[in-house]
Amino acid sequence: MSSSLDGRTVVVIGRGSGIARAVTLATHAHGARVVVAGRDQDSLRAAYNDEGITAERVDITDDDSIAALAERLGQVDHVVSTASARARGRLAELDREALLRSFDTKVIGPVMLAKHFAPRIAEGGSFVLFSGVAAFKPAVGYLGVAITNGAVDFLTRSLALELGPIRVNTISPGVVDTGIWDSLGEDAKSAYFTDLRSRNPARRIGVPDDIAAAVIFAMTSPFLTGVTLRIDGGEPLT
Ligand SMILES: NC(=O)c1ccc[n+]([C@@H]2O[C@H](COP(=O)([O-])OP(=O)(O)OC[C@H]3O[C@@H](n4cnc5c(N)ncnc54)[C@H](OP(=O)(O)O)[C@@H]3O)[C@@H](O)[C@H]2O)c1
Predict the structure, then answer these.
(1) How far apart, in whole angstroms, are the C-alpha atoms of residue 83 and residue 235?
(2) Could you report the per-residue pLDDT of 60-115, keeping only the tens digit for each?
(3) C-alpha distances in angstroms, 190 versus 181, 184, 196, 199, 235?
């Protein structure tokens, strides 16, 4: 059983930028055929012009869409889901709809991905899901993000047990500058990053390639399953 990605088929769900893009390019550089899948197939297609990267459509909150993608792709080796719809805000600002969307995208969606793709995963294959540092370092304003990411951690272990020998692992990024922090405004974002950089043990903010390297490790480590790899600069220790 080879743990190389050369010639393997890897499905990366998410957008054409940020962490999903870094994962796609790193996986492609390791010789895999990469299928990127998201809600906007045209923009995904426009984001890549390399041979060996094809764009597909999937809405991870829609079971028919997931089943149709699995049917179209047939046998694959690894499925990576970066999809996320984070429910940020303090308790008083949170509404049920945002929380449900967050869970649907990051927890229920991956359950349904596993259901439809597991019968099509080739020997040595795996699922890689995404949690996040908010699960391991609670902060006011991030309750919705924390409980969603925490559920992914539990999902990882349950799926790994049920699906073995298909491996299931999760990556938990710390703060990575992918554009998601831009909504804070330029000054607040800069102050937040400066503070974080000065406090976390790695003394830096993450970059998408830090996370892509962990995804490659998860896909190519045949004895790794049921774990959440925290690639977060040690932020929960602070
Ligand atoms: N960046 C960070 O600091 C950080 C920290 C902790 C955890 N993470 C996690 O790392 C992952 C990637 O983060 P990121 O910052 O690169 O990107 P992100 O902004 O979280 O991207 C997630 C993408 O998922 C796609 N998506 C949302 N709903 C979907 C659905 N129903 N079906 C299919 N796709 C859907 C959206 O793309 P479209 O709008 O194009 O559909 C969205 O841009 C996420 O799971 C995130 O929670 C990131």
Answers:
(1) 23
(2) 999 999 999 999 999 999 999 999 999 999 999 999 999 999 999 999 999 999 99
(3) 10, 9, 10, 14, 17
pLDDT in tens, 207-221: 999 999 999 999 999
Ligand 1 mutation target, pool 24, 57, 82, most atoms within 8 A of CB: 82
Confidence of residue 117 (pLDDT cuts 50, 70, 90): very high
Whether residue 181 is contained in a domain is answered as: yes
What are 129's strand-pairing partners?
Answer: 170
Amino acid identity, position 186: E
pTM score of the predicted model:
0.98
Cβ contacts of 59 within 8 Å, gap of 6 or more: 39, 65
81 CB less than 6 Å from ligand 1? no
CATH number, domain of 53, equals: 3.40.50.720
Domain region containing 52: 9-229
Count: domains in the chain: 1
**In contact, 11 and 37? CB cutoff 8 Å:** yes
Assigned domain for 197 exists:
yes
